[in-house]
Specification:
The protein contains five helices and eight strands. By secondary structure, it is α+β, with helices and mostly antiparallel strands. Helix 4 packs across helix 5. The protein binds flavin mononucleotide. Flavin mononucleotide binds next to strand 2, strand 3 and helix 2.
Length: about 220
């Protein structure tokens, strides 16, 4: 099998990113871009991002998760702490998040350190989830091999019966991670492959050094 993709080409023309216009704090630029993408461009899930970890096997692995909150501190997503990514983070908290907002021709790449958020914050978010998602978190031993789909569906049914009329309590192995950024790169596609790349690097845990990178 062979498919030649060399004719897949696109000129990026929707925006520009100039050093003279960027704020001192990258979280403020992230917020601006996030709002713009939501308001002006076609993006199904603006908050979908990849999380890359270095696995116990030494390989990097990316997977998509949903960003649920961002603040000046960083970026929060929720998952199963016993999953492959959870085990990877326990060994090595250095992670990379990335967004590709194709409608806006923008990419954001964030290197940072992941840490579990406070239990009461995970409780609060868990309580806000639809009941189906709450029970789903109990059903799935995320990343473990499962014999077949029926096993999951039977477990779901059994739990639905068992918990009928009762509150679903967050399992301890499910919760949020906060990724505190140490580096954030903003990429805006431009014509002729002369894309704009602005990188913020954290200095002494406090100041952000801002540089333009070659595309
Ligand atoms: C659009 C989308 C959103 C997802 N959101 C989440 C999420 O918020 N949390 C999560 O644990 N997995 C989410 N997943 C599933 C993950 O990509 C992944 O399959 C799962 O977390 C297990 O990854 P792991 O085995 O590498 O730990 C999402 C997948 C997609 C495609």
């Amino acid at each position: 099998m062979e498919k030649d993709l060399s004719k897949y080409r696109k000129s990026y023309e929707k925006g520009a990113l100039l050093l003279t216009e960027v704020p001192e704090n990258p979280l403020e630029l992230f917020q601006k871009w996030f709002h713009e993408v939501d308001a002006f461009f076609i993006e199904d899930e603006t908050n979908a991002m990849t999380v890359s970890t270095i696995g116990l096997d030494g390989y990097p692995k990316n997977r998509v998760v949903l960003l649920k909150k961002y603040t000046y501190e960083g970026f929060i997503f929720y998952t199963n702490y016993n999953s492959e990514k959870g085990k990877a983070i326990a060994m090595n908290p250095n992670v990379c998040l990335s967004f590709f907002w194709h409608g806006a021709e923008r990419q954001v790449i964030i290197k940072g350190k992941a840490e579990k958020i406070a239990e009461n914050l995970s409780d609060g978010y868990f309580e806000s989830r639809p009941r189906g998602s709450q029970i789903g978190a109990l059903v799935s031993n995320q990343s473990e091999v499962v014999e077949n789909r029926e096993v999951l569906e039977n477990k779901l049914k059994a739990l639905e019966d068992e918990l009928e009329g009762k509150e679903v309590i967050r399992p301890k192995h499910w919760g949020g991670y906060l990724v505190r950024p140490v580096e954030i790169e903003f990429w805006q596609g431009r014509p002729n492959r002369l894309h704009d790349r602005i990188r913020y690097k954290l200095q002494d845990n406090y100041d952000w050094q801002i540089d333009r990178l070659s595309p």
